[in-house]
Specification:
alpha/beta, Rossmann fold, 3 domains, 4-stranded parallel sheet, globular, binds 1,3-dihydroxyacetonephosphate
Length: about 300
């Protein structure tokens, strides 16, 4: 089936099933194009919780669809490619959290949304890259364990120096590719450009940036800026909205390897199949669901 025919079938099935399609900023261009809402993890989790549609096709990775299901357990949440995972999310287990709690009983656990539901269930509150600093700052406890992303954790630590923050050793394999030297090289090639990076980048990369934020915050910053050139330190899917919203501005990606292999798994074909066959349905065990919902709801309340 050609692209136009596929798109038309997606729109038809979407209407028939009264479904909502949401896409993360890292999805391939064609998928972002057919989505009702495109955004970062925080924005999409809010959209899914607030919208009335009973069927949600989540074009992203597993933990994102799982979070949508936890916040709206009565809805049918579909992930077009069931093996679209997140290596960072898999770097911590519920057992690890249990052990940390035993070792540090008076610490609060702040867990990045890039984590499995079983880990969320054992955490005090969830955060995303757009609200991590605010959540850590506003928690009454000064002793925090931040997991699983050590780079986002280091960024938070810098912004909230008054708190005692223990980091976990997780990291995003895509953002980790960017080195300090890449930023220095890009700056010398484009001396007038501002450097905008995601906080999942290494601390010495974040150090050199003019702006650090979530994918949506990067897009909003570049769109609002009077500057004309930007060096982008995150997955290249963000270029879709950056270019669409700013046809007169120039964007240079920091590293040619900024492609998340999991985010790129969803295609128009798999979105169409998700709608047609109502697959792959995300389910969460009841026991895990309650705890994870409490921690996610606390993020929405605070963030
Ligand atoms: P955002 O919430 O910034 O979109 O980040 C999601 C993510 O997984 C980044 O790698």
């Amino acid at each position: 089936m050609n692209i136009e025919a596929l798109k038309n079938e997606i729109y038809k099935l979407k209407r028939e099933k009264n479904a909502l399609i949401v896409a993360h900023n890292y999805q391939i261009d064609e998928v972002q194009e057919i989505a009702d809402f495109v955004g970062d993890s925080f924005y999409l989790s809010k959209v899914c919780a607030e919208r009335p549609e009973e069927v949600i096709v989540f074009c992203g990775v597993h933990f994102m669809a799982e979070s949508a299901k936890i916040l709206s357990p009565h809805k049918k949440v579909l992930l077009p490619e069931i093996d679209a995972g997140c290596p960072l999310a898999d770097m911590v287990t519920a057992e690890d959290v249990e052990n940390l709690k035993k070792k540090y009983p008076d610490y609060s656990i702040v867990c990045y949304i890039n984590s499995p539901a079983s880990v969320k269930a054992k955490s005090d509150v969830i955060c995303t890259s757009s609200n991590a600093v605010k959540i850590v700052r506003e928690l009454p406890n000064n002793k925090i364990i931040f997991l699983p992303d050590k780079n986002l954790g280091s960024f938070v630590k810098k912004q909230v120096p008054e708190k005692n923050i223990i980091l976990w050793e997780g990291f995003c394999i895509t953002h980790y590719k960017i080195k300090k030297e890449d930023v220095e090289k890009a700056k010398s090639l484009h001396p007038n450009a501002l450097v905008l990076v995601h906080p999942e980048c290494r601390p010495d990369v974040v150090e050199l940036a003019d702006f650090v934020g979530s994918t949506k915050q990067i897009i909003d910053f570049a769109t609002a800026s009077k500057e004309k050139e930007f060096i982008i330190g995150t997955e290249m899917g963000v270029l879709y909205s950056l270019k669409k919203l700013n046809p007169d501005k120039k964007f240079y990606i920091l590293h040619p390897g900024m492609i998340c292999p999991n985010m790129k798994k969803n295609t128009l074909q798999s979105v169409r199949d998700a709608l047609l066959y109502e697959r792959y349905q995300i389910e969460v065990e009841e026991e895990i669901m309650q705890g994870a919902k409490r921690a996610l709801a606390k993020m929405l309340e605070m963030g």
